[in-house]
Automatic annotation (TrEMBL):
SUPFAM superfamilies: GlnB-like (SSF54913). Transmembrane segments: none annotated. InterPro entries: CdAMP_rec, N-reg_PII-like_a/b, N-reg_PII/ATP_PRibTrfase_C. Gene3D superfamilies: 3.30.70.120. It comes from Companilactobacillus halodurans. This is Transcriptional regulator.
């Protein structure tokens, strides 16, 4: 068994949750915050049998989309507020996924 930890954008969370349940996956959704943008995102914990990992990743890939976001340098360095520069474009990925082996899984 594997645990997929998938960090995705809030905008895609509803569709991902719906599709996972529809295809028989069990998942937990946690609110999270990106360290760079300091904006809300969403972390899914999905426990899956080894042979289903690729199916789950395919659902994540199909439902989660890369988007551009503009941030001002002062957003990243508030101390430089007096010399505000042009906004810079940041590509926020559809999903950042970690696939972790699970030693043991029990449900009571
Ligand atoms: P954030 O940390 O808010 O990062 C949002 C986007 O900002 C990133 O998109 C990336 O395009 C850019 N970015 C992040 N750190 C940067 C840096 N030091 N310099 C320049 N640009 C930077 P993604 O890479 O798609 O990441 C989306 C979210 O996934 C991240 O939100 C974070 O919450 C999570 N994440 C990404 N890589 C991670 C990792 N290695 N470990 C844990 N969480 C990660």
């Amino acid at each position: 068994m594997k645990l997929i930890v998938a960090i995705i954008q809030d905008k895609d969370s509803q569709q991902l949750q719906t599709q996972l349940v529809k295809d028989g996956f069990r998942a937990t959704q946690l609110p999270s915050t990106g360290g760079f943008l300091k904006a809300g995102n969403c972390t899914f914990l999905i426990g899956v049998d080894d042979e289903k990992v690729d199916d789950a990743l395919e659902i994540i890939k199909k439902t989660c989309h890369t988007r551009s976001q503009y941030v001002t340098p002062t957003f990243l360095m508030p101390e430089a507020a007096s010399s505000m520069g042009e906004p810079i474009e940041v590509q926020v990925g559809g999903a950042t996924c970690f696939i972790v082996p699970v030693d043991k899984f029990v449900r009571f």
